[in-house]
Amino acid sequence: MTAAATDTVVKSTTCYECDANCLFDVTIDASGRAIKVEGLPNCPRGQLQLERQYHPDHLLYPLKRIGAKGSGEFERISWEEALDTITAELQKAKAQYGAPAVGFFAGYTKEARPQLQRLAHAFGSPNYLTESGCCFSATMVAEKLTYGYKLK
C-alpha cells in the first residue's frame, strides 16, 4: 500500500440518480474530497458523479443574468437578493395573471415535496406537480414501443 493510499478512506453509500438506488463505494482523500467512485460499472449516471460534483461550471452560489438571454453572462449575487428576486417575480406573476398561472414542480427528491406543496397552497396555486406524472407517461410510451401493443 502506498503512502497516498493510506491517506484515503472508502465509504459505502447509495446513488440517488434513479429509482434503483445502487450501492457504491466512494474513495475520499485526506482533505475530504471524493476522488474515486466504484461499484457502478454499467451505469453512466453513477460513473459521472465526480464529474458532476467537481465540474468547473457546478453552481455554488446564486447567479443573475446580466447579458442577453443565451449570452452566458452572469454575476454572483447574495442568497438574500436571489430570494427577494424570486419572491418579486412570483408576486408579479400572481398579480398579473392570478395564482393558478404559477406551477410548483417537485423533482425526484421526495424530501422537499411537503414544503413545496405547502408553498403552492399558501401561494394560492392548485398547480403542484411532481416528476411522477411525467415519468410514468414516458415509461408507458417506452414500454409500448419496446414490447408492442395492440393496434385497433
From TrEMBL:
Keyword Metal-binding carried by entry: yes
In its keyword annotation, does this UniProt entry include Metal-binding? yes
Q: What is this protein called?
A: Molybdopterin oxidoreductase
Q: Which residues form the Molybdopterin oxidoreductase domain?
A: 59-140
Q: Which InterPro entries match?
A: Mopterin_OxRdtase (IPR006656), Prok_Mopterin_Oxidored (IPR050612)
Under PANTHER family, the record lists:
OXIDOREDUCTASE YYAE-RELATED (PTHR43742:SF6), TRIMETHYLAMINE-N-OXIDE REDUCTASE (PTHR43742)
Q: Report the Pfam families cross-referenced here.
A: Molybdopterin (PF00384)
Q: What is the lineage of its organism?
A: Bacteria, Pseudomonadati, Pseudomonadota, Gammaproteobacteria, Thiotrichales
A Gene Ontology molecular function term of the record: oxidoreductase activity
Q: Which keywords accompany this UniProt record? A: Iron, Iron-sulfur, Metal-binding
